[in-house]
Amino acid sequence: MTSRAIPAQRVLVLGAGSIGIFVGGNLAAAGADVTFVGRPRLLDEIAEHGLRLTDLDGRDVAVPPAAFRGVTDVNDAAPPDLVLITVKSADTAAAASELVGLLKPGTVVLSLQNGIGNDAVIREILPACVVLAGMVMFNVVHHAGGRFHRGTAGGVALADDPVLNRFGPLFRASGLEIKRHPDLLPVQWAKLLLNLNNPINALSGRPLREELATRDYRRCLALTQGEALSVMNAARITPARLTPLPPAAMVRLLTVPDGLFRRVAGRVLAIDPVARSSMADDLAAGRRTEIRWLCGEIVSLGTMVGLPTPVNQRLIELIAVAEDGDRRTWSGPELLAELRAAAGR
Predict the structure, then answer these.
(1) pLDDT beneath 50, residues of the chain
(2) Buried (b) or exposed (e) across 89-120, using 16+ Cβ within 10 A?
(3) Which residues pair with 71 in a beta bridge?
């Protein structure tokens, strides 16, 4: 990948974890002047080793340390042309507040975060900027030595706006699959549906591919997504189709025997064998998770439309226990029994 065919553009990645480094690293490889703002541990690692960006399709890109900067304080960065906010949802307001005084009016800010409504939080704090919602549709696995591996299929979904045309050559050169949507909300709700597997994966203690290949864990996901679809329907929310079948049909397919699921929905299992959910990674690192912006979003929506959401509520409770140090690993039958009991209460 060469970088000289496009003019240099300054990109600031605020919240440089695995996702932010993978996306920002590909932009650096394409010629952008990228500054990562994040924790010293990761910044020190990539400063020493550089970046190696790989994926399950065989792509392998090396980015030397001289091709990017890493800082722990946003005030040490130059005013950027483009900002990628990739912090956890709980940190959105604080991250946006750090940018006040650094960004020029009209700076483009992309919220590449899970959940619904982070862009609105950012827009309120940075009213002079062009703030657009976005979603990273793939999983990234961090390996030692500065290697970041895309472990699942997918690209980057963005709310469409003419300002993105300025960055079109950069995005195309980066190798990232960028999809622009006139209305991103259906995609965000659909991604939230998929992310309801995050707590199940975290509680299972298994890699994503192994967990999703196991019928009882898929039955847990079917309960969780089925409940979510009920409250979405009551709220007149129609999620986009991101899976081989529409969401409601996919919920039914999750419950079939393993062999049939592999034959009918093999694409769902096209996942790197070591990839785990970001929630599993957060628990392993002793960090608070985004459960309030995933299952919590469903519980809040259920309250709004007057429908109970006991399955999603129970997952919130189980993850809260895990966050407090109880790292119990749930077998498929145990977790399914727990969620069925919650649904029956």
Answers:
(1) 1-5
(2) bebbeebbebbeebbeeebbbbbbbbbbbbbe
(3) 37
